[in-house]
Amino acid sequence: MSPPSAMPRVRRFLLALVCLGGIHYTAPWPGPQAVLNTFLVLGLAPGFNSPLAGMAWAAAGGWVLEGTLRLYPHLGGTGFGNMLAYLLAFSLVLRWPPHALKPYWGRQAVLVLIHTLLVHFSVAFAAGSHNWGTGWLWSLLLTPAWATVALRLHPPLHRK
Amino acid sequence: MRDRPWGLGPTGRRRWAMAALLLGHLVWMALGRGSSGRWRHLLDLLAIPPRTASARWEDWKAARSQRITNVREAQAEILGLRAQVTALLSARAAEAPRLAEADEAVRLLGLKKLLPLDFRAARVIVNVRKAPFGGMILDRGEDAGLVPDQGVICPEGVVGRIWDVGMTQSSLLPLDAYNASTGVMLARSRATGVLQGLGPGKAAIRYIGTQEVVQVGEPVFTSGLDRIFPRGLLVGYVSSALPHDVELHVEVVLAAPLDRVGVVLILPPHPQMEIQPPSGPAQAAPSKKGGR
After folding, report:
1. How many domains does chain A have?
2. pTM, to two decimals
3. What is the rounded CA–CA span in Å between residue A27 and residue A25?
4. Residues whose CB falls within 8 Å of the CB of residue B160, separated by 6 or more in sequence, listed in order
5. What angle do CA B160, B162, B164 make, to 5 degrees?
């Protein structure tokens, strides 16, 4: 595997930063906010060359989302769930790099469901019972959109 | 030298950092329950710049919309606003009597809750009390089961008694009518007497002995001896007390605003002399197990 060039890494970093800001500023609309969080965790973060960086971005997304929701008495559950989901997505990308669009959509849709379960179990562990909302449905329905963006506009570095 | 996966090389350090990140979260979640206020405070701080920018943007838009570029349009707008203000004032004036009556009804409801009697509410439809042989007319009569000599009160105090009853209306004899007499007592000395009307808003108490000590401003209540009003309803306040032959001439300013009373409560005929204030919530029925 050839070393990644500096430009995509910077671009990916900037895109992740925009995503994080988007999660913060879309707080009044929980649906799009959840889609941005999913895109950051399952679409953008696995593309970072360093798994530590990807995991940190996933955790940051979870913390920002929880901080803007202002619903839970104790924060941290979403960040933890994001990290676990990221590790799963990252290992899948490493083992089976995506080559075609539609199988990638299917994989990401399954990952969305697993991510939802992981996040809600973590939040239940950290903060107790909570409302699941419809954010996961938004993410699932918009999987073709954000997964296409993740794959085509900004392909994971491992594919190069 | 080969880089070990969990050693101190770059890969190992990265793995240790990831494990620390995960474990740190896990420990935070398990042991946490600490305050998240600082994090939220930080997010609030981050939100200040866009909030300030959007406030300025709104201010700019408001200033732009209020800028006058055409004098004729501005004058037309002023005329339109004046018409709106006039319409609103007219609507408020039209609603004022209803609002006043609603306020009075609310106060009557409060009074009704305080006194455990079977009241009937009535509206004063004519008030010519100051005219010769004038009085007040109520909108209830025989159809509501009224009979002469039922007491009439309002939240401020006693108003008078039913004088004559028609089919759908009845006339009211106010306390200040010259031919009205009511059994009253003084608040401090508990001396009883008869209140007789002296003209608009005033009345005098008869049959109070000169040995009684009466103070100006002392409240006057119904005594209950006339069997029209129960004991203890506020009638008015002593305005002067002067000896006159063998009795005190005690003048009373009536508490009820007879000129502007609009809704009244009619007491049942011949109420009990003493009325007990309502107790708290109803007591639970005694259990049958214990009773013999």
Report:
1. 1
2. 0.45
3. 5
4. B136, B152, B172, B173, B174, B175, B177, B180, B258
5. 140
Best residue in A49, A55, A90 to probe B by mutation, most B CBs within 10 Å?
A55
- Kindly provide the ipTM of the predicted complex, given to two decimals: 0.82
Q: Contact B253/B236 with Cβ under 8 angstroms?
A: yes
- Encode pLDDT of A28-87 as tens digits: 888 999 999 999 999 999 988 889 999 999 999 999 999 888 778 788 899 999 999 999
The yes-or-no verdict on residue B97 having pLDDT over 70 is yes
Nearest to B278 by CA among B81, B109, B117: B117
CATH 2.40.420.20 is the classification of domain B118-266: no
B50 contacts: CB under 8 Å, gap ≥ 6 = A25
**What is the rounded distance in angstroms from the CA atom of residue B31 to the CA atom of residue B199?**
82
Inspect the interface and report whether the beta carbons of B33 and A64 lie closer than 8 Å.
Answer: no
Read off the pLDDT of residues A103-133 as tens digits, 9 standing for 90 and up: 999 999 999 999 999 999 999 888 888 888 8
| Helix H or strand E segment including B218 | none
Separation between Cα atoms, residue A72 and residue A136, nearest integer Å: 17
Q: Which of B232, B152, B154, B153 is nearest to B192 (CA)?
A: B232
Q: Does residue A25 fall inside a structural domain?
A: yes
Residue appearing with tokens 């530590």: A52
Query: Does A150 map to a domain?
Result: yes
Rounded Cα distance, B16 and B152, in Å = 89
Tell me whether residues A122 and B29 touch, CB distance under 8 A. yes
Main-chain dihedrals φ then ψ at residue B281, nearest 5 degrees: -60, 150
- CATH assignment at residue A11: 1.10.1760
Residue A35, in any domain of the structure: yes
Measured CA to CA, the distance from residue A78 to residue A40 in angstroms comes to: 13
Nearest one of B129, B130, B131, B133 to B152, comparing CA atoms: B129
Residues 9-68 of A with CB under 8 A from B: 24-25, 50-52, 55-56, 59, 63-64, 67-68
Partner residue facing A68 (CB), from B30, B33, B43? B43
A52–B18: do the CB atoms touch at under 8 Å? yes
**CA within 13 Å, CB half, B86:** 6
pLDDT tens digits for range B179-189: 889 999 998 88
Q: Is residue A1 part of a domain?
A: no
**Which residue of B13, B18, B27 to mutate against A (max A Cβ within 10 Å)?**
B18
* Distance linking the first and last C-alpha atoms of chain A: 7
Full residue range of the structural domain in which residue A51 is found: 6-159
